[in-house]
Structures are given as C-alpha cells and as structure tokens.
Amino acid sequence: MAEAVANVARRVNETVEEGKDCLDLSNCKLINFPDGVFKILKSVIENIHAVTLADNVMKVISSKFFGSFTHLHELDLHCNVLTKLPDAVADVEHLKVINLANNKFSVFPEKLLEITTLETINLEGNSITEIPVERLSAMPALKWINVKSNPLDKDTLTALQTPHQFEILFTVNA
Questions:
Q1: CA-closest candidate to residue 52, choices 82, 36, 72, 67
Q2: How far is it between the farthest Cα atoms of the chain?
Q3: Residue 24: which H helix or E strand, with range?
Q4: Edge-to-edge strand ranges of the sheet holding 144-146
C-alpha cells in the first residue's frame, strides 16, 4: 500500500514540477481519486487536458473530480469496476475522448449525451444491453463509438446496423 501511495505522489509531483498537461495515475491500485491530489494540483489543474486512471480498481469517480478537471479533453478510465458516472461528467465542456472500456456498466451513461464536444466513446467490454442510438446521432461532434463485447439487445443491434454519421464498432451476439 505504501508503495502505491508513493507512486501516486511521485506521478502527481512530476506533473506539477514539469508542467505537464497530462496526469497518468494508471495502474496505481486506486479505489477512488485521492482527495489530496486536488490540493497538490490546484495551481496547475486548468492546464491538465488528459487524465489516465486506467487499470485501477475504482468503483466510483466523484463529482468533485469532474468539477475540478473542467478543461479535460481526454479521460481514460478503462479497466476499473465503474458502474456509473456522476451527473457532473456533463460539466466537462471540452471533453473529446472518454474510454470506459472493460468496466461494469450495465446501462449506457446518459450524461455523456450532453457533452457536445465528445468525439470518441469507448464502452467495449461492459454489460450494456441498450444504446440510445437516436440520441447519439444528435451529438454534433461524435465520430466514433465502440460497444463491442456488450450483450446488446435485438432492437439496439438493428438500430446500430443502419447508417450513421459516426463509426460504430459492435459485435453481434451469437
């Protein structure tokens, strides 16, 4: 545990000291985003455009995270155990890419539909059965969505097979 804490501290300090625009806390055994990190990043948080929290064991990501990282362009949360996102995700007005692959979502995170800048959504390897295809079509910037390896229902599969202005990756259930 002490090694994991030291690893997080080292990476956060590097981000601050080197003026990086990305924060990589992947594979740090995190169960949530540490509150202390907000204090350390306070002076540079607006400059951080990409956060990677992949390969952790996060069950939840707080509203405070999204309220603090308002200038994010990319967020990578793949390989955690997330089941939902807080409503505050819609407040990240510049988000272009979100990776939620290999989590525990059973329902499409509807608040993503409110992010008008979102270009890429990766939800591969979750347990989602329905995708709001018509509402996705109304997203002005959306270019690509991956819903492979989800147990999509028949109606969703039918809707996904019609032409759209964005690319959809999906697998047909056997």
A1: 72
A2: 52
A3: strand 22-24
A4: 22-24, 50-52, 74-76, 97-99, 120-122, 144-146, 167-169
User: Residue 19: how many CB atoms within 10 A of its CB?
Assistant: 8
> For the segment 51-65, what is each residue's pLDDT rounded down to a tens digit?
999 999 999 999 999
The gap from C-alpha 7 to its chain's centroid, in whole angstroms, comes to 22
User: Angle at the Cα of 44 (from 38 to 45), degrees rounded to 5?
Assistant: 50
Q: Is the pTM of this model over 0.90?
A: yes
What own/partner pairs with CB < 8 Å and gap ≥ 24 does 134-139 have?
134/159, 136/164, 136/166, 137/164, 137/165, 137/166, 138/113, 139/113, 139/115, 139/166
Look at strands 167-169 and 97-99 and give their pairing: unpaired
Query: For residue 42, which amino acid is it?
Result: K
